[in-house]
Design brief:
It is a single chain. This protein is an alpha/beta fold. It contains 14 helices and 23 strands. It folds into 2 domains: 236 residues, 3-Layer(aba) Sandwich (Aldehyde Dehydrogenase, Chain A, domain 1), CATH 3.40.605.10; 186 residues, 3-Layer(aba) Sandwich (Aldehyde Dehydrogenase, Chain A, domain 2). The protein has a 7-stranded mixed β-sheet with strand order 14-17-18-13-12-19-20, with helices on both faces. The protein has a 5-stranded mixed β-sheet with strand order 21-6-5-22-23, with no helix packed on it. It is globular and about 75 Å long.
Length: 524
């Protein structure tokens, strides 16, 4: 047996061979290639220290912006092989994945523009004012990067929420190096995207260690505990995210943990809306809940539909549309097994029906469907609470409510969500009836409230917010949109610092031309 000794000569125990990391085809369940081996604690430490050493190279905003633009160009230049690898590992389809790669490149460039503009630094300068009560000294405030950011990749968006995704792009834009914990569902793609980012870094004199990549469950735990990791971003399950969140808080020095954990994304259809456009709503719901084989984090998982004829017509339209949906492949066979078991457990509950039965579609596929239940079963705590939990895959729950109070009672029991949607009639949307009241009722539930739309699809835009009350996320921040950069910054104030000692961002003459608030006045 081989033994290992630490630097002090103490026996650490028998050496364990590193576990191989395989790329697996979800369409067949077969291994494609061995990509890497799971990282040891020592390798995680080396990756974090290399990232930490690269901080100074990101200090220049012009370098950061150029690096991000080169990364975007590199993804586009390698589009075909990257999309091919992604499809082989995720079965999401080349058209969908090509669009996701384009979105990811756009996001990188958008953050480069934010870096160039500089407003994210929140520069505020107040000159001394002896007449104020109490007197105000010379105060100059801006934001600085936190340090190394740990990024935990998601399975369902192998470009946009993975190695080069929003967490990485926003962290690099803030001036923070990253170490990414690769998702086991697309390890080969993770390696190849990391290579693109490292080549882009080298083009601008930035050490390749600015983007680290590690594989393995234990590596993810070692990463969150590393003393040089200053913050973390996560997209995944409630169980996994909460475990990492707790670990981040339990460190000797706790760190911010920005996690997206899970969401039911409720939809409320008013009686007037169902009467006005039942078929349109049913068809739209079918398209949203089955998009990407139901693997979007904003998939509508609970839909409140009125009882009565208009609601019946909506449910029939939904059934017709869902029944025509082809079986699809989930991201891995573990998810497939969980989906089949989760649907079966829900379908066995009393008073639950399946107009279109979801479940096993074939040896490697699943079929879409939906369940119905009287909303009264969800108004009080009981076995039916399972229907208020996210089920990952192409299924939704349609709760038929008898009146407005019953619908409101169900909404009052929901946890935090990424999105909440209301389908209104044309009159309600014009501000008549309960339209404004319903919008106010949904606002506490989610970070994004939609009217007469569907939540699947998260635009990359300055005004976007992708987050919500716990357990949707563990913080009030967004992981999509320009303000995602704020997660990786902290404010610092210099008081009575001589001009010669100040960073360029805080000098009176504003040599960098930054947007700022100067003696109470906003300057641009």
């Amino acid at each position: 047996m081989t033994h290992r000794f630490n630097q002090c000569g103490l026996l650490e125990g028998p050496a364990v061979a590193a576990a191989p990391v395989w790329s697996v085809d979800p369409r067949t369940g077969k291994q494609r290639e061995q990509v890497a081996v799971e990282a040891t604690a020592q390798e995680v430490d080396a990756a974090v220290r290399a990232a930490h050493a690269a901080r100074e190279a990101l200090a220049d905003r012009a370098v950061r912006a150029a690096f991000l633009r080169s990364a975007a160009a590199g993804l586009e230049q390698a589009r075909d092989p990257l999309v091919g690898t992604a499809d082989a590992e995720t079965a999401l389809g080349q058209v969908r994945l090509a669009g996701e790669l384009a979105r990811t490149a756009y996001q990188l460039r958008a953050f480069a523009d934010i870096v160039d503009e500089g407003a994210f630094l929140d520069v505020v300068i107040d000159h001394p004012d002896a007449t104020a009560t109490p007197p105000v000294p010379d105060l100059r405030r801006y934001k600085v990067p936190l340090g190394v950011v740990a990024v935990y990749s998601a399975s369902n968006f192998p470009f946009a929420f993975s190695v080069a995704g929003g967490d990485t792009a926003s962290a690099l834009a803030a001036g923070c190096p990253v170490v990414v914990k690769a998702h086991p569902d697309h390890p080969a793609l993770s390696e190849r995207v990391a290579e693109v980012l490292r080549r882009a870094a080298a083009e601008h004199g930035v050490p390749e260690g600015v983007v680290g990549l590690v594989h393995g469950f234990q590596a993810g735990i070692e990463l969150i505990k590393h003393p040089l990791v200053a913050a973390a971003g996560f997209t995944g399950s409630v169980r996994g995210g909460r475990a990492l969140f707790d670990a981040a808080a339990a460190r000797p020095v706790p760190i911010p943990f920005h996690g997206e954990l899970g969401s039911l994304n409720p939809v409320l259809v008013t009686e007037a809306a169902a009467a006005e456009r039942a078929e349109e709503i049913g068809g739209g719901l079918a398209g949203s809940m089955t998009l990407g084989v139901g693997q979007f984090c904003v998939k509508p998982g609970l839909v409140l539909v009125p009882s009565g004829g208009a609601g019946d017509q909506l449910v029939k339209s939904l059934a017709d549309a869902v029944a025509g949906t082809d079986a699809g492949v989930l991201l891995d066979h573990r998810m497939r097994d969980n989906f089949i078991a989760g649907v079966a457990e829900r379908a066995e509950l009393p008073d639950v029906d399946a107009p279109v039965t979801p479940g096993e579609g074939g040896e490697h596929t699943v079929s879409a469907g939906f369940l119905t239940v009287p909303a009264a079963k969800l108004t009080e705590e009981g076995d039916h609470d399972l229907l208020l939990e996210e089920c990952f895959g192409p299924v939704t729950v349609v709760a038929r409510y008898a009146d407005e109070q019953e619908a409101k009672a169900v909404l009052s029991r929901l946890p935090g969500n990424l999105t909440a949607t209301v389908q209104l009639s044309s009159e309600e949307a014009a501000g008549q009836g309960r339209g404004p009241e319903l919008l106010a009722e949904l606002t506490p539930l989610a970070g994004r409230v939609l009217v007469n739309g569907w939540p699947t699809g998260v635009a990359v835009a300055p005004a976007q917010h992708h987050g919500g009350p716990y357990p949707a996320t563990t913080s009030t921040s967004t992981s999509v949109g320009g303000t995602a950069i704020e997660r990786w910054l902290r404010p610092v104030v210099y008081q009575n610092a001589p001009e010669a000692l100040l960073p360029a961002e805080l000098k009176d003459d504003n040599p960098l031309g930054l947007p700022r608030r100067f003696n109470g006045r906003l300057e641009r």
